[in-house]
Structures are given as structure tokens and as C-alpha cells.
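tool_call: predict_structure(chain=1)
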Amino acid sequence: MKNMILIAESGSTKCDWLFYQGNHCVSETSTAGFNPYFHSEEWMIEQMRFNPQLVEMAHRVSSIYFFGAGCSREDLQQKVHRALNGFFSQAQICVDHDLTAAAYATYNGKTAISCILGTGSNACRFNGNTVYSEVPSLAFILGDEGSGSYFGKQLLAAFFYKQLPKQISDDLRTEYPGISVDKIVKKVYQTTHANVYLASFMPFIYRWKSSDLIQGWLRKGFQHFLDNQVLCYQGVQEMPIHFVGSVAKFFEAELEATLVKNNLEMGQIVKQPAHALARFVLEQHEKRS
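tool_result:
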């Protein structure tokens, strides 16, 4: 199989890789997510070398479309480009932002706001041709409102400040034996995957999402996201608001209630956008060929 197209969609936690021959997906695999803010070129190449499917398919790939978290600036895109070129040496490579992937994956012919609510958060407007961001993403320390890393911080702070109900606090200790301030501080301040680590607490938060405390966090977090990332767009009440990401999917009811409160129209929610993204990319690739 030659002239194979590889489409990769990467958040900070996971990267999905889809191999296409024509319009048929012939293979797919996943690795850890690539984020050039946190990961070196050597680390990215190493992750690819550890994946047997990527190794097997590398020499067959002629074109790569990579969309990734952190790939918003040209210098960061070039960092990922060099890593991909170091592994897929014969392929033509295009690197773009994961926000562009969200816009492409949710586009249905109508101008809309497309949002990411996963490990991190972001939003843009897309009209079928141009992806436009009104404000920047400030990542997990200053931004990422309503995301997995945002809510993970809420949980850990409440736990150590002894603000959690006893039942939730006891369950957290059981779920994460040995949890301590020293361990959390090391994970958050001395590793390169702090945002992913913080977001890893979302399954636990989902388990207790019916509690009044966590319902309050969800309402506040999603409102904070809308205030900063969505309501800044002119005419937003006349456009559907689409979402990609696991946080949007698993907390759909709470998210939709927040949208309704703000007179916003809920659009699509796509938990894993890779296949929807691929359909759009392949159509555009065919037009250019």
C-alpha cells in the first residue's frame, strides 16, 4: 500500500493516528499525546518508535496531517514537524493546532463556535474556510477553564483544604492510596505532564458529580469557560456551539444547562474527533490533488 495518508489528532493526554488508503481507514492506533510546550522532539520520536503499528506503517506514508495541542505558533508547529520528519522521513507533513481539528471535525456547513473541553479548553469560530480565535488559550495555569485540568485542581485543593464532604474525602483516599501534599506538589510542579495528571482525576469527579459541591464546581467552571472563551464572539447567540472532548461528553447535561442559561444553542458533542476530522481533511486533500 503506497500513497497512504496519515491523519493524527492529539490532545495533551492522547494522540489518535488514522491511516487512510483513499477514503478507507486501513489501520489506527494511539500513543501518548504530543504537546510541544512540554515535550522534546526526542521524546516524541521515542513515543512513535515504541508503537509497533507506527513502525510498521512508517515507510508507507506519503502525507501526514497532524493536529495537536500546543501547536498554535509556527515555532511550536516546526518542533512537531521535525519530530515527525525524524520518523516519517519520506512524507510530506502539515502540522496545525488541535483547535483547527475541533473546527473541522464539527463543521456541518454552518458558521459556528467550536470548543475543546478535554484535558484543556479552547474555542474558535469557523465558517468553513477560516478558523478565528478571539482570545488566546492561556493553558492550565492561567486558563483552561472548564477543562479536566481545571476541575482536577478544584478537587485537590478542596481535599487538602479539608473542604470535601467526608464521604468523598474518604473515597479519594481509598482510590489514591498514599495521596499527600508532597506527592501532589512533585507531580504538579516538577513534571512535564502536570495538566494530564490533574485531568486524570476526572473519572473520580464524574463518580461524585451528583453531589452539590461538584455540581457547583461544574456550573462555575463551565460558566467561567463561556465568559472567557465563547461570549466574546459577536453574534454568538445566533450560532451553534460545538464541542469536542471527554469533559464535554461526560458532563453534557451540566454543560447544556449552562449554555441554556446564557441563551446559547448546543451543537454537536464529539468525544473523540479523529474520524470526523479525517472526513473533512480527506475532502480537502482530494480537492487539492
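agent: The chain has a mean pLDDT of 90. Proceeding to next step.
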